[in-house]
Amino acid sequence: MTTSRAGKPRRFSADDLQAFIERAFRAAGVPDDDARTVAELMTRLDLMGADGHGVFRLPHYIRRIRAGGINLHPDIRTVRETDATALVDGDNGVGHLVVSRAARIAMDKAEKCGVAWVGTRNSNHAGAASIYAVMPLERAMIGLYVAVGSANHLPPWGGVDMLLSTNPIAVAIPALEEPPIVLDMATTVAAYGKVKTAAQRGETMPEGWMIDRQGKPLTDPKRADEGFLLPIGGYKGYGLSLIFGLLAGTLNGAALGSTVVDFNKDDTTTTNTGQFIVALDIKAFADLDTFKRDVDRVIREMRSSDRLPDVESIRVPGEGSHATFQERSRSGIPIPDSLLDTLNALAGELAVPVLSE
Amino acid sequence: MTTSRAGKPRRFSADDLQAFIERAFRAAGVPDDDARTVAELMTRLDLMGADGHGVFRLPHYIRRIRAGGINLHPDIRTVRETDATALVDGDNGVGHLVVSRAARIAMDKAEKCGVAWVGTRNSNHAGAASIYAVMPLERAMIGLYVAVGSANHLPPWGGVDMLLSTNPIAVAIPALEEPPIVLDMATTVAAYGKVKTAAQRGETMPEGWMIDRQGKPLTDPKRADEGFLLPIGGYKGYGLSLIFGLLAGTLNGAALGSTVVDFNKDDTTTTNTGQFIVALDIKAFADLDTFKRDVDRVIREMRSSDRLPDVESIRVPGEGSHATFQERSRSGIPIPDSLLDTLNALAGELAVPVLSE
Fold it and tell me: Rounded to a whole number, what is the distance in Å from the CA of B3 to chain A's nearest CA?
């Protein structure tokens, strides 16, 4: 391992990383099938470059499991149902399992009804939103996913009490020859993970990410606890965060506002996290190939626009993560040394083999 | 009329305004029932304070009708259908008629299936998004509406070719004792109407609304043609505008990107405007009163937050327009003199009685 200290982070294949995550979860008591499902989803996030949501989260997830904050044998079940909707109670299981189940139900119902909307409650943090939005793509459907974030980081617009989270949205739309369009965004200018990363690296944040309780720009990420994230477009992003929270949380009987548990600080209280996923069958609206070709046309128009000075290329959402996925599938997933040390210490605690090539 | 020149704008009752709009449309050849429907919706926007989308638009709509750009006897029909979806072809009819029809279909289908998603194509500009999002509230449903804007005002992020519109979203969620939450927002920092208003008033725009083709802030609204609107949150708002455009436009076989017709500059080319509306039945997820009470709780938490210095009150989306609706229902709708002159000139052209108390 010493060889890597001088230069680039070591890289691990997706298979090796997935196997490591899987054995960690199994050692922590997660049943085999469930451990495999969660490990596969987390590894996919690392492949896509969502580094803050893949194996990086493993120590935190395991800590919560060991503290008793997660139900390892949940009865994940549909508690309300119509032809095109369902409400899934996750019974405090691992979020990835709950949302995967919700996504499958949504696709099955959309197959029959053209569209389906499935909500969750008693779920947990489930990783980056995009992995669920892309699931319906397999079945020629558009996916739309919204989650209530697992810690409040912003107040209502004009306020100082942190009552809202970054409540992200992800939407995935297939193309024909182009990669699918995959939007995955927090309703804040910066996701909280970016603040953490800036703090780790000793960097200053740009103005516009955070303000302090006097409303002044806060640029020192080490002082993040003294301020809060800014929503995109000011009151508009506040409105989006609130609306997404009501749809993904309140409507499902899940937490929002003062009832949200900060899962960074509290390992044991049930979070009652809410999410929802919509699957929309393209053939209910259009001939599939015609639609995909039209999406190609739109993508190419965007990309071919003349550019502002100093702009090298114009992208569509998902293009960067698609390229990262392909590159990492070939060359492996880079794991920074500090994270590798943490993961191998965790392996020691769990008495499982360390991450290795 | 001269009495008002000195002071406040004259006010007209909703009934009088609606009757005026109705007779203008009838004189322009719109069938009686349709004229009444459109007049009612436009008046509702004036009552809500969406001044850029109510009677203010009448001269433009009439101009387009007289130029032959609108089909006055459209065969608005469902061209594709599943249990929970429909695609409505508006046959180039007035947008308000097309979207109202789509909203009714969505509510009927959601009654049976829990949720419904109805798209439109060959529609036209239909006024502010919120009037459609609130329609499902009558039936204890949540409404969500997205439209492709009727002129492109922004490029893809990093570009300079105007390929996207402000593509707005509106969502309406009912509460119990509180007014419903109604979010209605463009995906740009400022709607284009605000730029027009600033130009009329000779005001300077704040930095952040627009940039010029060199990427520099553009603050003179009279130079608006030399620049473009900025999306909220930079690339995030660009992503939202693109995704909303694909879902409301491309999926329905409607215009997006280079195929969008600028209805400000072109009175005759069919716009092929696309929209979609989702109706979501609350009782598919929750007990209705429990849900509404939970929404009240969330609204009150937001409003009770401690505030930043110099902030007088914290609002939730829709609160301002709700108050305006109530005030204008009592005291009438203020019509600025310049608009009144324009409307009365229009009345002369159409040989109908002018707007009067």
Answer: 39
Q: Output the pLDDT for position A278.
A: 98
Q: For the residues A155-178, what does the mean pLDDT come to?
A: 97
d(CA A339, CA A344): 9
Q: What is the mean pLDDT of residues A3-9?
A: 63
- How far does the CA of residue A175 sit from the closest CA of chain B (Å)? 11
Q: Going from the N-terminus, what domains does chain B have, and what CATH number goes with each?
A: 70-188+231-285 (3.30.1370.60), 190-230 (3.30.60.50)
CB–CB contact B160 A316 (8 Å): no
Contacts of A84 in chain B (CB under 8 A): 83-84, 113-116
Q: Which residue of B has its CA nearest to A254?
A: B294
- pLDDT mean over A258-282: 97
Amino acid occupying residue A238? Y
pLDDT on residue B200: 81
Q: What is the pLDDT of residue B5?
A: 53
Question: Given a cut of 60, is residue B3 above it in pLDDT?
Answer: no
Interface of B with A in 191-230 (CB under 8 A): 213-215
Interface membership of B108 toward A (CB under 8 Å) = no
* Mean pLDDT, range B22-43, rounded to an integer: 98
* Residue B173 to residue A117, Cβ atoms within 8 A: no
Residue of B79, B111, B115 to mutate when probing chain A, most A C-beta within 10 A: B115
Q: What is the pLDDT of residues B177-212, one digit of tens each?
A: 999 999 999 999 998 878 888 888 889 999 999 999
pTM, whole model, 2 decimals? 0.96
Residues of chain A with C-beta less than 8 angstroms from the C-beta of B119: 285
Query: What is d(CA B76, CA B98) in angstroms, rounded to the nearest whole number?
Result: 7
- The pLDDT assigned to A357 comes to 75
Residue of chain B whose Cα is closest to the Cα of A259 = B298
Establish if B279 touches chain A: CB-CB under 8 angstroms: no
